[in-house]
Amino acid sequence: MRIIKAAIFYFDSHSPRTGSRTKMWKLSLILCLVYISSVFGQGSIDLKIIPEKTYKLILEGAELKLDCVVEFTGKPNVKAEFYKDDNLLPEGTHNGYHVSVSESVIVDLDLYRSTTTLIKNVTDANDKGKYECRAQRGTDNGMDSIEVMTFTASGGDGELPGKDGDTVELPCDINIKAVTIDVDYTISWERDGTSLVDGDKYKISNNTLQIFKPTRADLGAYQCVVVIFPTSEVEKQTVRTKPSYLKASPKIESHDNNKNMVQGDNLELKCKVSGYPTPTVSWFKDEKEIETTTRIHTLEYEGAMGKLMIYSLEDEDEGIYKCLAENEVAPYNATAEMRVRVKDKLAALWPFLGIVAEVIVLCVIILVYEKRRSKKLEEEDAADGNQENPVDHKDVRHRRT
Predict the structure, then answer these.
(1) Shared domain check, 288 and 242
(2) What are 251-274's pLDDT values in tens digits?
(3) pLDDT computed for residue 344 by the predictor
(4) 282 and 220 in one domain?
(5) Total domains present in the chain
(6) pTM above 0.90, yes or no
(7) Which of 104, 127, 150 is the last residue of a domain?
(8) Phi, psi of 384 (to 5 degrees)
(9) In a domain, 388, yes or no
(10) Of 108, 165, 171, 231, whose CB is crowded by the most CB atoms within 10 A?
(11) Regions of the chain short of the pLDDT cut 50
(12) Residue 117's domain spans which residues?
């Protein structure tokens, strides 16, 4: 393959551009070189292990995967083989390693690619060592190698302290098992993909992350990041360990108050919880766990199933409702209660009818009173009229008897 590339470069740089005749000469020369290479030299071999590094760092328990890629021209085809510490790892499954080979034509002109893949699903300390990929055909051969190092990362989870002012520490103890070299590495910490730096909130000391005055807003996953060979960009490798967690027991942050409802209304009860791991929320009515139906649903609210919906309320829905939040951190649970009263649809009508009746009775009383008062006034007016023309007896003489 190298011969063909060199010939093409030379031909392009030294031949004049004469159109289709030049193209025909170029194609003829290439085909001739391919034939000579396949007959006499059996083609060249280009070989590389992917990743193309001198060293590879693997966390024990993770997957080890190496690809050995061989590109060649001519036939017969070339397949590469993996060796570990000079011991052949045959195709198939052997001692936990699985080796497979795939082959394809990547371009024209009889150029082939063979990929030999080595996989170890669960890496352990015995997998450290030197891995070689070897390919040979006649006098032409190729070899590439990579040093595999394993490491362990022992961390620990922390729990939210019970009072302000306390500090939580999340350790990250790294043990790198190298074969022949001394390994330089650095440790950093991330949360949600953001690097944490020393300051008022965090401090990294002896690979341990210190969190000052943590609150429930700080709950969640923190990841230790190992950077190997930080002084060499070629060999620099970043490995993220399994996360460490800042945990806390369940807490009811807020919940709805008691509610007075009417038959046929839709009831919505909300219960906001916090804690890590995220608490599971269960709902109870009168100390009996509620089962979801086509009318009763539990929905997500603020990251947990903290919402209860009951559609078209009935009399039987009246009672004491309780949300229960649980996780694995002591004291393991927290509860909140809400009382729901369900009134009849006509409950609001009865007071109205009472008010109407009172108004009617009052109007009747007023009418009766006014009628009697009017009659009395008429009688008084009549009596006053009879006294307006009295008889004058001054001129009448009394006869003696």
Answers:
(1) no
(2) 999 999 999 999 999 999 999 999
(3) 83
(4) no
(5) 5
(6) no
(7) 150
(8) -65, -30
(9) no
(10) 171
(11) 1-11, 33-42, 401
(12) 45-150
